[in-house]
Amino acid sequence: AYKANFILAKTEYVPTETRIEEDNWVAGMEWADSLGADVISSSLGYLDFDNGFTYTKQQLDGQTAVTTIAADIAASLGIVVCNAMGNGGPGDTTLVTPADADTILACGAVNSSGTIASFSSRGPTGDGRIKPEVVARGVSTYCATASDTNTFGYASGTSLSTPLVGGCAAVLLSAHPDWAPWKVREALMYTAN
C-alpha cells in the first residue's frame, strides 16, 4: 500500500515445532498492536506439534486455540488480520489455527487462472463455518528469495497468497481509514468472485 510502514516480527522457532510458538505469535500480535498496526499478515499456522499434541477438527471452532483467540482480540482492537489457511489440502477441515477465527480473513491459494490449489487447506471449521474467506495467487508466485537481497524466483503456498490479501486490506484502509476490520473483511469477501 502506498506510503505503508512495516513492522516485521519473527515468532517461528525453526528447529522444532512446539506450542511456545503460539505464545510467540500472540506476543508478536501484542507488539504490533502496541506500535499501532492496522493490518497483520501472518503466514504461520498451528495444528500438529512435536510432542504429539494436535488440534482436533472439533477444536478448529474459532474458540479454542490461543492464536485464534488472540486474532479475534486483534480484530476487536481494530486490526485487520489476514492469516494463511495452511497447505494441508485438499481434504475437508484441513485448516490451521488461527485461520479458524471468525473475525479474520483466512487466505487460501489459487493458480493464475483462479483454480484453487490442491495443497490449499479448506474448511469447514469445527463449528461449520466456510473457510477460506478469500483466495489469492499462491501457485508459482514471483517473489524475493531467501538466498540474497537481489534474487527473485517462484514459490507456492498460502504463505504467498496471504501477503497479497494483506496488501489489499492496507490499500482499502488507505482509501477508507475509518473502516473497522469487519468492514474491510466484508468488502474483500463481497467483491470477490
Would you mind describing this structure in some detail?
With 193 residues, the protein is an alpha/beta fold. Helices cover 28% and strands 14% of the residues. The chain is built from 4 helices and 6 strands; from the N terminus they run αβαβββββαα. The chain has a 4-stranded parallel beta sheet, sandwiched between helices. The longest helix is centred in the C-terminal third of the chain and has 18 residues, at 158-175.
In short:
The protein is 28% helix and 14% strand. It has helices spanning 20-34, 66-76, 158-175, 181-191, and strands spanning 39-42, 80-84, 105-110, 134-137, 141-144, 152-155.
Spell out the key features of this protein.
193 residues; 4 helices
List the helices and strands and how they pair.
Blueprint: H1 20-34, E1 39-42, H2 66-76, E2 80-84, E3 105-110, E4 134-137, E5 141-144, E6 152-155, H3 158-175, H4 181-191
Parallel strand pairs: 1-2, 2-3, 3-4
Antiparallel strand pairs: 5-6
| Principal-axes shape call | globular
Q: Specify the biggest β-sheet.
A: 4 strands, parallel
Q: Strand percentage, roughly?
A: 5-15%
H-E order: HEHEEEEEHH
- Decide which structural class fits the backbone: alpha/beta
Q: What share of the residues lie within helices?
A: 25-40%
With strands numbered from the N-terminus, the spatial order across the biggest sheet is 1-2-3-4
> How many helices in DSSP terms?
4
Distance between the termini: 22 Å
Average pLDDT level: 95
Low-confidence region ranges: none
Strand tally? 6
CA radius of gyration? 16 Å
